[in-house]
């Protein structure tokens, strides 16, 4: 009788643990996907704006959202590179970090006294920060 009670107790604990893990994994997945969707929608919205705003608008959006300007530019690059989220090679099984590392066109590299250079995917050359507007327009 005691063995049966212990066995039922262990089985219930095992089931509870499996349920908890399943819940956590599903919500973690959804959280990553919602972040990706949010960044994509932000980038699409910023792409809809007329060019007359220029680069003045990005610092304002970045400050208002508590994000870096680089993150805001990346949302724009993301929306430009993948106008439809169904085009993502890995589908919904992706994170914002992976998108930045693997799929966004511009890479940055620090050289010297923390001066940023950008690696253009089209010509594979390094460009100074001042050249970035030219690169972004030609991608």
TrEMBL record:
Name by which UniProt lists this protein: Uncharacterized protein
Source organism of the structure: candidate division WWE3 bacterium RIFOXYA2_FULL_46_9
Organism lineage: Bacteria, Katanobacteria
